[in-house]
Amino acid sequence: MTKILPVIMCGGSGTRVWPESRETLPKQFIPLIGERSTFQTTMQMLDDPAFERPIVISSVDYRFLIADQLREIGAQADIVLEPMRRDSGPAVAVAAGLAARRSPGTVVVVLAADHVVRDQPGLVDLCKKAAEAAKEGYIVTLGVKPDAPATGYGYLRPGAQIHEGGEVLKLEAFVEKPDRATAQSYLDQGYFWNSGNFIFRADVMQAEIAKYEPTIASAAEGAIDAAKMDLGFLVLDEASFQLAPKKSIDYAVMEKTTQAALIPADIGWSDVGSWRAVWELSKRDQHGNSVRGHGVVMDATNVHVRSDETLTTVVGVSDVIVVTTQDAVLVLHHDHGDKVKQLVQQLQRENRREAGEHKRIFRPWGYYQSIDSGARYQVKRIVVKPGERLSLQMHFHRAEHWIVVRGTAEVDCDDLTKLVHENESIYLPMGCKHRLTNPGKIDLELVEVQTGSYLGEDDIVRFQDAYNRG
Amino acid sequence: MTKILPVIMCGGSGTRVWPESRETLPKQFIPLIGERSTFQTTMQMLDDPAFERPIVISSVDYRFLIADQLREIGAQADIVLEPMRRDSGPAVAVAAGLAARRSPGTVVVVLAADHVVRDQPGLVDLCKKAAEAAKEGYIVTLGVKPDAPATGYGYLRPGAQIHEGGEVLKLEAFVEKPDRATAQSYLDQGYFWNSGNFIFRADVMQAEIAKYEPTIASAAEGAIDAAKMDLGFLVLDEASFQLAPKKSIDYAVMEKTTQAALIPADIGWSDVGSWRAVWELSKRDQHGNSVRGHGVVMDATNVHVRSDETLTTVVGVSDVIVVTTQDAVLVLHHDHGDKVKQLVQQLQRENRREAGEHKRIFRPWGYYQSIDSGARYQVKRIVVKPGERLSLQMHFHRAEHWIVVRGTAEVDCDDLTKLVHENESIYLPMGCKHRLTNPGKIDLELVEVQTGSYLGEDDIVRFQDAYNRG
């Protein structure tokens, strides 16, 4: 049996489940449900002899996050980076182009990284069945039986079986997000939801894109041809890729192609497109309440509380989601889930950092997080992964005290190099050229106390950087 | 004109407006409305030639808080400390006893420290008028015209004017908190709310307490007679005071006495007895929304958001209070305000620190606050007031790094004494005998990084303490 090449689309920014999901650490990378991110559970599902080593397509911003998350679960993948966001059409074109370079007949399954599928073996089985139809030239979609006239999904109108007695049906029509009345009529007529997963032969998809969206096709080809390897990532060529219009694969191909098929998928699928969906996927008590982390609910029903650290209490308010993060709280009525996106846009207009950035800032070498600040000082927690190193740098306006609380630091300060161990500290005067390395085998954790009259992140002169940052 | 002696009752624990108000820093000491605490605004109101230097009666736990808050507004008072909580009856007995020792005819006004009065000059005027009646032997209450059949207040049934054409009325009946139907009938009959402020002659109140509650009378007298001055506070004698039963002055005297009078008070009074009351006292926009601090309200009405630091957002949820503090969030429906007390009791049963303690812990010398912690470390912000000094102490299980970020520290470490200036640090090894002093004229702020295998507050051996703590 020829193997299927999985391509995971990992570039979304997930504002609908703000404040846990933000531009700098979106939905697909956080454990919204369970202990792992949906990206990780998707990757784990693909650990099956039916699949080749997956390709992950994402934004250049998420490269180290992806590498980290793969490392955490011991999974491997080829990581392809888009220099800018261009929606799913160009991404699928790249997937098809990369697959075709292996062999034009390669069967590809495109999966979203931010969906939950309860019956993962079921999905694997469906992929195998869909692959047979894909080999015959069909572009196969997975159709989910709707349980409500949702207006947030595309709908699929099923036709006859492509083979008598088989599970795969002709797809008669692929229609984009309807209004509520239309959605209800679709439900009555037995339409399916488009789950956003596709199975196709590389050459078939390439031909369809070339036919309906030649600009996307040529931009994707150019971006692959001139792509460059950088620190193990394949970075698509910016000049070519940017020529691709922003268009979803639904609009670009699926609504137009005559080669589409559909396989009904009863696999407990959710695109986790709102906080309400998260609540529905969570374990609830007899009052419909569900608490993740430190929460107390009193005299209320259908409440979902999420808080990692801060005690979060709800009294007498039903049908709400309450999400508490380190720097933002959201109190949201179940029926207003579609307004979270608007809220985030409003916060962006007001230039609030919380709109897009978490308090914990991930870097290729680990992360840092501001834990306190005053008039002339700031305190940060800094964690450096084993073997990693920050850039050689200098600050004009601040001095730094580093106190190592776990692991060992190798500190360069002007011409000196010193090992600093747990419970030791070092002082870096203003203007010194310094660098922090974790030479050890465990995480290095340190507390940094900055003092000075200006403490902005932009007071940094970088002399050398292991991660090719400016 | 003889002056009135104001006595401010300052001992409540204010759980109804948790999480801002907690046992360690209750309602009367926090700026619930405006920039000052209600204790401070009450004190500021008493800065009037009609009044003597006030007496503040409170729990021993709040002595340094009271001193600080007085210092902050430049006010002066005699501070009397109850060694344990005994409700308002014994406190009023002490007030009367202290006043009678000056002169039996002293007119006393007893004021609650946690009420809001919009028309403060109006209250001062009423006190003066009530004082005239008090001189004649009346115990005068301030009656507030009810605007709803509230069940949380005592009610006052007014009688005839004590002097023809005067404002002071005979008080026909003083009845405790009724049920809703009874409250409505009281409203219909023109009853007033008891605002909890009383004006009386010291000897009159003493006689009434002696008549109806002789145990309270003798306990109060004994507690005054054996009281001791400690660091400028008058501490009531524990052995005597504990003999007083816990009883409010309403039950102890007001329901029984035949000498009560009433003066109608239209002074914008609120006892701020619930979050709803706080919302009602706050400035609201045309949707009834009111935001204090960092909040955003979208598609909702009658929302009150309070958050000093954390961005707090409400979408599509109306008629709620959302309070975000550093370590606790409350989402409360307007109609469930009376359940906050229950919530706090539940949190106490679960031994949650947040039930009664703020993240910022006030001490006689200043405050500290945990800002981060990990497996074997904790980071604190410590602020020491000018001239103050922590105890000479030692820890068995932790070492400490101190980084001064503002002001100057004088540090004793075993046999050495050293000045540590801004942007300097010092290391205190495990087991060393150390002491921190602020010898300067401005606040000393430092960041403390503790490392060790046990970081509990109880790992402390105190050798000497300037504040007579154990």
From TrEMBL, chains A, B:
Q: Outline the extent of the MannoseP isomerase/GMP-like beta-helix domain.
A: 295-347
Check the record and name the InterPro entries matching this protein.
Answer: GMPP_N, Man1P_GuaTrfase/Man6P_Isoase, Man6P_isomerase-2_C, ManC/GMP-like_b-helix, Mannose-6P_isomerase_type2, NTP_transferase_dom, Nucleotide-diphossugar_trans, RmlC-like_jellyroll
Q: Name one GO molecular function term.
A: mannose-1-phosphate guanylyltransferase (GTP) activity
Q: Which reaction does it catalyse?
A: alpha-D-mannose 1-phosphate + GTP + H(+) = GDP-alpha-D-mannose + diphosphate
Pfam families found in the cross-reference section: ManC_GMP_beta-helix, MannoseP_isomer, NTP_transferase
**SUPFAM superfamilies in UniProt:** Nucleotide-diphospho-sugar transferases, RmlC-like cupins
Q: Which UniProt keywords apply?
A: GTP-binding, Isomerase, Nucleotide-binding, Nucleotidyltransferase, Transferase
Q: What is its EC number?
A: 2.7.7.13
Concerning its family, UniProt says: Belongs to the mannose-6-phosphate isomerase type 2 family.
Q: Supply the name of the protein.
A: mannose-1-phosphate guanylyltransferase
Q: Which organism is it from?
A: Methylocystis bryophila
